[in-house]
Specification:
Layout (H helix, E strand, L loop, with lengths): L1 H12 L12 E7 L2 H13 L2 E5 L10 E7 L1 H13 L4 E5 L2 H7 L18 H14 L4 E8 L5 E7 L8 E6 L7 H16 L4 H9 L1 E5 L4 H9 L52 H12 L4 E9 L3 E4 L11 H19 L4 E4 H4 L7 H7 L4 E7 L14 H21 L3
Parallel strand pairs: 7-8, 7-9, 9-12, 10-11
Antiparallel strand pairs: 1-3, 1-4, 2-3, 5-6, 6-8, 10-12
Helix pairs in contact: 6-13, 7-13, 10-13
Bound molecules: zinc ion.
Zinc ion binds next to loops.
Subcellular location: Secreted; Zymogen granule lumen
Family: Belongs to the peptidase M14 family.
InterPro entries: CARBOXYPEPT_ZN_1, CARBOXYPEPT_ZN_2, CPB_M14_CPD, M14A-like_propep, M14A_act_pep, Peptidase_M14
């Protein structure tokens, strides 16, 4: 026991410095039954500083749903009193955010440097991209598809056995800075690919027949910011004239019904769609890469958290994609695979009805570019830890997600177009 405690102490000591300490911040889950409740939440949001966790913004809340949001310690009495007065039912998901924030570093791994079962900072991920390419020259190559607002490189790993004119699957992670489990999955995917190639028949076939483009972190500046200043940061770190507010929501910044619904025109909002489609260097670089590889990219997968959902187009509209029936049965089968390992429950369906309408997302955009298989994964969990999923769940989360991704990849390989 003493040994264990000592390890925990070391793990906490190695936690990143954080500008905001989140002492006493609470995360509440409120049942929103009707329009009156919705009005009350709007009022709360306008008078208090509320960080919406799910959905992403007050405008996306629907009656007969739940909303998860984070409030500061000094607002919690006011907010909880108001909820009680109006008889809104709620539960406290997290009673002190700081504790959960520290508890995310619960990995038993003592390894210094890169680890697949720990959250890695950007410097470590950057070095890893080089190392995994150097160590697997026949299978992995690294390129730079652009630079971020703050001038960091955006690395892309191409994973597959070298062969000309192969179809490809594009996977990105780390759109939203605080969704740390997402970059962890992209790293895991590459490791599993190189580890099991030539050993496991399924992965060997996939890498012989397909290329995977893996973008481990899209929003690098935001990710760095979550490690150094504010763990709960979501957006990019771009600035613009006329406002002191920073950042655009990269997943509201694509030219797919841009800013028509579920996005904000206010630069201070967490779902700010930006001054124009592809205004962000990060989304522009991603879109440019996909546009220039449209003849080979057959599927687009984008990894977010949290909610445990597998979503497909559309989110910017309630219209259904042309191959809705096919996407629905593919999602169903992928979710069944995912569930088979640890019993993790996922829901699936078109974004607009399954989670909420939101325009400017990369999956809708990719689909409208002609990529027939476009999915958004919302990884673990369902709100117990939210964005602060403990490191001890990285392995299980990545293992189960691999099954779903491999299923989609095999399906795409059998249904080339
Ligand atoms: Zn996200």
């Amino acid at each position: 026991m003493l040994v264990f405690l000592a390890l925990v102490t070391v793990a906490l000591a190695s936690a990143p410095p954080s500008g905001e300490h989140f002492e006493g911040h609470k995360v509440l889950r409120v049942n929103v039954e009707d329009e009156n409740h919705l009005d009350l939440i709007r009022e709360l949001a306008s008078n208090n500083q509320i960080d919406f966790w799910k959905p992403d913004a007050v405008t996306q809340i629907r009656p007969r749903s739940t909303v998860d949001f984070c409030i500061k310690a000094e607002d919690s009495v006011t907010v909880e009193d108001l909820l009680d007065q109006h008889e809104l039912q709620y539960e406290v998901l997290i009673s002190n955010l700081r504790n959960v924030m520290e508890a995310q570093f619960d990995s038993r791994s003592r390894a210094a440097g890169h680890s697949y079962t720990k959250y890695n900072d950007w410097e470590t991920i950057e070095a890893w991209t080089q190392q995994i390419a150097d160590e697997n020259p026949g299978l992995v190559s690294r390129s730079i598809i652009g630079t971020t607002f703050e001038g960091r490189n955006m690395y892309l790993l191409k994973v597959g056995k070298a062969n000309p004119n192969k179809p490809a699957i594009f996977i990105d992670c780390g759109f939203h800075a605080r969704e740390w489990i997402s970059p962890a999955f992209c790293q895991w995917f590459v490791r599993e690919a190189v580890r099991t190639y030539g050993q496991e028949i399924h992965m060997t076939e996939l890498l012989n027949e397909l290329d995977f483009y893996i973008l481990p972190v899209v929003n690098v500046d935001g990710y760095v910011y979550t490690w150094t200043k504010n763990r709960m940061w979501r957006k990019t770190r771009s600035t613009q004239a006329g406002t002191s507010c920073v950042g655009t929501d990269p997943n509201r910044n694509f030219a797919a019904g841009w800013c028509e619904t579920g996005a904000s025109t206010s630069p201070c909002a967490d779902t700010y769609c930006g001054p124009a489609p592809e205004s962000e260097k990060e989304t522009k670089a991603l879109a440019n890469f996909i546009r220039s590889h449209l003849s080979t990219i057959k599927a687009y997968l984008t990894i977010h958290s949290y909610s445990q959902m597998l979503l497909y187009p559309y989110s910017y509209s309630y219209k259904l994609p042309a191959n809705n029936v096919e996407l629905n049965s593919l999602a169903k089968a992928a979710v069944r695979e995912l569930n088979s390992l640890h019993g993790t429950q996922y829901t699936y369906g078109p974004g607009a009805t399954t989670i909420y309408p939101a325009a400017g997302g990369s999956d809708d955009w990719a689909y409208d570019q002609g990529i027939k298989y476009a999915f958004t994964f919302e990884l673990r969990d369902k709100g117990r830890y939210g964005f602060l999923l403990p490191e001890s769940q990285i392995r299980a989360t990545c293992e189960e997600t691999m099954l779903a991704v491999k299923h989609v990849a095999s399906y795409v390989l059998e249904h080339l177009y």
